[in-house]
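RETRY 2/3 - previous attempt timed out on the joint model. Re-submitting the same 374-residue input unchanged.
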Amino acid sequence: MLAGASRVACCKQPEGGDSRERARQSQGSQGKADDGIGQPSAHRRRPRYSGKYPRRFEEKYKELESRPETVAKVLASGKTPAGSHVPIMVKEILEVLRPQPGDTVVDCTLGHGGHASALLPLIQPGGLLLGLDVDPVELPRAKARLSSLGFGSQTLRIRKSNFAGLPAAMVAERIAGADCLLADLGVSSMQLDTPGRGFSTKTPGPLDMRMNPQRGLSAAGFLKKIQSPALETLLRENADEPHAGKIASALAGKDFALTTDLTNAVRSALGSMPADDIEKSVRRVFQAIRIEVNEEFSALDALLRNLPGCLKTGGRVAILTFHSGEDRRVKKAFQSGFRTGIYSGIADNVTRPSPEECRANPRASSAKLRWAIR
Ligand SMILES: C[S@@+](CC[C@H](N)C(=O)[O-])C[C@H]1O[C@@H](n2cnc3c(N)ncnc32)[C@H](O)[C@@H]1O
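RETRY 2/3 succeeded.
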């Protein structure tokens, strides 16, 4: 039986923004533990910081690049090393997609290339993986990483493309249909953790939040233009924010240069509430604005519409979602496709990550996996 048909939820669905953002907030001390586990073979002078440990993202990133033992230690402590991303529910996704030698796979959200690097060996010999992503900053890094694992252009094609334009991307690569297709929605850890990308509620950075910074309005530009009633609706629809009215009137039309300016404005709008509730609202506000700035729902709707035409008969699709707005859309599209005979099988229930995975990688905790077969 495919994953999801009879599995019960095993990780608690937490409140207050998706788990990747929540987990990120608890990782403020990432990298502090580098005090000598795993002896390096040759002596290397430890980098110097203003304090004892690297604190700034750039310092952690540099250190992790050069110290594999530090990466292992950060991972073992349930944190995501700076500048990387831990792929979620890999085993369950492979069970669902069942990649075979010679298969054509489309990874609609290449990110760090974690899922792709698990899929690529399984489709050899003769298989091809097309990886898409909108992020022009991370895409070349993912390409270099996968190429260094030995996957060349015969096996791997990478395109900067929104998955809303999946049919055109497949035509451009002369791919008629996919045997397996994956979409791991939302933002990557690299995007969340890099202060300069402007997704962080805690570390100051330009209030941007665009996965593709070359296109559209930044979060700051968006807030400056929007009016209070429209923002209130958006906070409710994109993140189920219970204090949408109060927050919208404090934010709409205002100028916020930094991520932390926005965080502070939400905190002051909700002044007398318990601190935990305020922080949940902060995360939901960031999530709602991020979804809007990146047009995430319209891209997902387009993907779901185009999917059947992009899969071969018998082709399989797996989609990982991280909040109810995404999951609702995937569930409805798969159910309606099953009723009308477009899909021959779909997941009855969502599959959730195991408690072990949630412990090892708290960013997995709100993930939900659904699948369908053409
Ligand atoms: C959660 S990460 C994927 C991580 C990846 N599965 C891995 O294992 O490394 C999501 C990625 O999807 C990309 N993305 C989000 N929406 C997209 C869209 N509409 N089209 C293409 N890429 C998108 C983001 O830029 C991000 O890199």
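The longest strand covers residues 311-321. Closing ticket.
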